């Protein structure tokens, strides 16, 4: 047996090094290098590891590779099919991420239960078979061809696969399984990386699609390694507030389709229901007749989402007015207030201003400037902004609306979520075909123009 070694692995990017460092030399994050025990495997050991052996790949000419439409597996779930880019691609490795308790296991289980023609092997490392049965009973289903096994060893999982010959494999969750080839505890970076890499190789060689479920940590990345995102073909994220029933399924990465798609579900007593008309989601949260609310089409990372900015402006009782912002940079808010004062002539110096980004989110996207400034003005004038209007635009010092990135994605998201009108920077109209969208697009050059649209 090979000797054990200590390695330091970055929890953010998976970079490893034999020496510790305060700052990861690869991604530059501080204090992310964690000690891991690794037992290097000899080539002989690796060959002897249980699992499948396949013919060696050989280089072929590009012309010889058969293409044609990839036959996709219909998941019997429109939202999921759309986010996957038209169904599950054979031989693909999918990662479904989300916070604990959000409904990942429910989503996957109810989907596989609806596909009786596919033999599914559901590997659970978290719940007992009884728990799974109880959950399956809550979700209405007919005859199924789903096999459940509670297992955490990757080598044993391969043995089960060999025995059962499934069409689809589900692993719930990647953080609970471990392989003998890496000797650190399950859930550690080394284990996750080894298992995911091994599963990737397996799915490619066997052509059996595999769905991995993964937990997300507080920062919103798949717990531990970002490297998982590099390994898999698709990363789907299941999001939502546990206190609300709505869930959003988003593609973050997709080798076989667009990441601009999203799926919306409602968590019910009998599983997740697809929400095909998203405006019903907005209708329930109507703020009819309420001032101080503006909706922004924002992007964090590569993900577009619509977010509510709320402002409250009231007369300052004493001396220095109060300014407070949650989820938004206070200095930036002060700058926007100065722009408002200068351009629109509102005397905000005697007013308290409170700003809140709904859902406790922190947004760094400058495109929400326009909604921040509109919400403040709406509260100050006590005039409601039409709830079917949303906006995106960065505000410059002279009150000009500056262009924002990925405008098409923002518009598509607003349209998908049922908005009727979106205010965007005029500069972004270049190269944009407004007829492609089923939403009214209102380009503006200055904040005054935006205010005229919003408040007449
Ligand atoms: P679960 O799928 O276990 O979440 P995850 O796998 O992401 O950790 O979902 C857990 C929650 O979903 C739990 O709080 C109960 C709720 N739930 C329903 O509301 N309805 C249902 O039909 C099911 C199965 C779960
Ligand atoms: Mg679960």
Structure description:
The protein has a nine-stranded mixed beta sheet, with helices on both faces. The chain has a seven-stranded mixed beta sheet with strand order 15-16-14-13-17-20-21. The protein is an alpha/beta fold. It contains twelve helices and 21 strands. A hairpin with a 5-residue loop joins strand 1 and strand 2. It has helices at 43-48, 78-84, 104-113, 129-138, 154-164, 189-206, 227-231, 279-284, 330-344, 369-381, 407-416, 447-455; strands at 5-10, 16-17, 33-38, 93-98, 120-124, 146-150, 168-172, 210-215, 234-239, 246-254, 262-268, 271-274, 293-300, 303-315, 323-326, 351-357, 389-391, 394-395, 401-402, 421-425, 440-444. The radius of gyration is 25 Å and the shape is globular. It is 26% helix and 25% strand. Bound molecules: thymidine-5'-diphosphate and magnesium ion (MG). The site of thymidine-5'-diphosphate (TYD) has 16 residues, from helix 3, helix 4 and strand 11.
**What share of the residues does DSSP label as strand, in percent?**
25-35%
Radius of gyration: 25 Å
Spatial shape: globular
Going across the major beta sheet, what is the strand order? Answer: 6-5-7-8-4-9-10-11-12
Structural class: alpha/beta
Which cofactors or ions or other ligands sit in this model? thymidine-5'-diphosphate, magnesium ion
| Helix-residue proportion | 25-40%
Largest sheet: 9 strands, mixed
- The mean pLDDT is 85
Number of separate helices? 12
Through-space gap between termini: 77 Å
Number of strands: 21
Uncertain stretches of 5 or more adjacent residues: none
